[in-house]
Amino acid sequence: MRTEKQITYIVGLNTVRAAAALSVVFAHLLGPSMPGISRYIFTGHPAVIAFFVISGICIHFPFRAAELSPMTFLKRRYTRIMIPTAVALILAQWIGIRAYNPIDGYILWSVICEIIYYSLYPLFLPISRKVGWPAMIAASVIISYVTVIGLGSDEYGNAQIYGPSLNWVVSLPAWLMGCYIAQIYRSGLYVGNIWIWRAATAITASALYWATTNTPIGFYLTMIPFGVLACGWILSEASNAERGNASAVMEKIGEACFSIYLIHVIAAAAIERLGITSPVIVCTGSLLLVIPFFFLVEKPAHELSRRLGRRMVAGTPH
Fold first, then answer.
1. Could you state, in order of their start, the residue ranges of all structural domains in the chain?
2. What's the gap between Cα 161 and its chain centre?
3. What is the C-alpha separation between 43 and 261, in angstroms, rounded?
4. Residue 3 — φ and ψ, nearest 5°?
5. pLDDT, average across residues 267-296
């Protein structure tokens, strides 16, 4: 029997990570070339919201009832996320993707949000122990909707319109939902048939993508309710994994989800420079080029962050 920590951290979440990462890739590289309504099958923004929920779960689960050392925590998280991001940023500029930067927000807008959430977590944690995660989520929902209704959005409900100073506010409810899920999660929790959750999540994401591009109801209005649905899906995947039903392939892909997210558009641009224009070939090649980035950049950064944590716990911070 797997432990609760393994179920929550690895097995179920990696399947969700893989599905979300592949959805982003297919939305960017295949979606624009697909005919008619089929172009709405894959969508990136709801996938990012699922990532935010997962991030909240991963960050808070170890500290549900434990004390937090802010310096250790921040050093580990910054190392884990900033090294791969910095390398990807350099590669993007070398290839010529000028919008791939923290200000314009192409791809990196969600990474900036994550960095801000990590930075605020040492403050969020003691507040949650006084007022509870539900109260914090409710407050963040109000602030998020005041922001988006006040500022509006473009016709695509585009997150980048709010800029790095406000994107994190708009998406904060989803991240806090993840923290709450981590707080209440218990081994053996069953939330219903997994295929119903998967279908409901996929169909809803596609429907919201269609609504974003064809009606005034954009992602900026619908992503908070979608985050609630994503919580149910994630819990169902954890339950399914606990019973030993997780896909080994999706689990492996999920380990490289951050590399997939960071590098796919850079790899696609490099492949297209060779004169290759077939969306299927470009997409396939982009996913293959994720492999060296994961093993040469992301995995070493992850291992370094773990070593830093162990050294600081041992009383020899560097």
1. 4-313
2. 19
3. 13
4. -80, 165
5. 96
Q: Is-contact 214 91, C-beta < 8 A?
A: no
Any idea what the Cα angle at residue 153 is, between residues 147 and 158, rounded to 5°?
A: 110
Instruction: Please give the helix or strand (H or E) that residue 23 lies within, else none.
Output: helix 12-29
What DSSP string describes 274-301?
TT---HHHHHHHHHHHHHHHIIIIIHHH
**Residue pLDDT, tens place only, 77-106:** 999 999 999 999 999 999 999 999 988 778
Q: Where are the alpha helices (DSSP H) in 101-256?
A: 108-131, 133-151, 167-184, 194-214, 219-242, 248-255
Q: Is the full-model pTM beyond 0.85?
A: yes
> What's the rounded Cα separation, in Å, for the pair 189 and 239?
6
95 phi-psi bin (left φ>0, alpha ψ -120 to 50, beta other): alpha
CB burial of 259-291 (b: ≥16 within 10 Å; e: otherwise) equals bbbbbbbbbbbbbbeeeeeebeebbebbbebbe
Mean per-residue pLDDT over the chain, rounded: 89
- Model confidence over 190-222: pLDDT tens digits? 788 999 999 999 999 999 999 998 988 899 999
Tokens of 224: 């908070």
pLDDT tens, position by position, 177-189:
999 999 998 877 7
Nearest to 4 by CA among 51, 13, 305: 13
Closest Cα partner for 283 from 33, 37, 19? 33
The span from the CA of 207 to the CA of 205, in Å, is 5
Residues contacting residue 284 through CB under 8 Å, at least 6 positions apart: none
Structure tokens at 248: 């080994």
Cα 174 off chain centre by: 10
CA 104/CA 228 separation, integer angstroms: 28
Q: Is 227 exposed, middle or buried (0-12, 13-18, 19+ CB in 10 A)?
A: buried
Structure tokens at 134: 């539900």
Give 307's DSSP letter.
H
